[in-house]
Design goal:
The protein has 248 residues and is mainly α. It contains seven helices and two strands; from the N terminus they run H-H-H-H-H-H-H-E-E. It has one domain. Helix content is 74%, strand content 3%. The protein starts with a helix and ends in a 7-residue tail after the last strand.
Length: 248
Amino acid sequence: MKKTLLVLSIFISFSVQAGTVTGGASEWTQILNYGELYNQTNQSMSQLQTQMNQLANLKKQVMAGGAIQDFASTKQLFGNVVSTVKQAQGIGYDSQVMAGRFSSLYPDFNAKTGTDFFTQYGNWSKDLNGLLKASMGTANLHVSNFTNDATTSQTLQDKVRSANTAESQVAVINAGNEVALGTYQELQQMRQMQAIQNAAQTSFLAKQEAEANKKVSDSQQLIPSSDNILPCFQTAAGCTVKQMSQPR
C-alpha cells in the first residue's frame, strides 16, 4: 500500500511540472484526475467498511435478542450501502471513459504497454453487476438491473419492512453484507488497476516528452551559426562551396 501511494505521489508531483512539449497540460490533468478517482475509491472502501461493521452489529443484536420490533428503522443503513455501491459504479464508469480518452489521444499506448484499460474497466463493471445480482439473490431480493437506484432501494426497503422474524431479518442483513463485501473486494481490484494505469500512463508521457525534447535538441545542433562558417572556396565558377568550421 505504501509503495502504491509513493508511486502516485511521484507521478502527481511530476505531472504538475510537465506538459510543455507533449501537447500541453490536458494529458497531465487527466493523470491528476486519475489520482482523484483513486482517492474516491479509497473513500468508498472506507464507507463500505463502516457499513459492514454496522451490519455485523445489527446481526449480533438479532442473533442475541431475536427479531427487532422496529426493523424498518434500519432501512437507512441498507440505503447507504446501495448509495456507496452507486458511487463505486460511477468511479468505474469515469475511469473507463478517461481510459478511452487517453487511448484516443495516444493510439499506440495500448500496443506499447500491452494493456487495454478501457476494456479492463468494462470487464470490472460486468463483474461487479454480476456479483450484486448474486448477492441480492441470496435473500430473494431479485433486482434485474442494480444500476437502477430507485428500483434497488425500493426492493430493499420492501424486504426490510416485511422482515418481521429473526430469520428473515438475518437474511436481509446477510444480503446487505454480501453486497457491501463484494463491492469492497471489487474496489480493491480497481484501486490496484488505477495505480497500475496511472504509473503506465505517466511513464508513457514522460518517454514521449523525452523523445520530443531530444528531437528539438538534435535539430538545434544541426543549425550552424555564422561564427562557425568559414569563408567559401573560390573556384573558376565563383564562390560555390562552404564548409563548417571544425570545433576548436
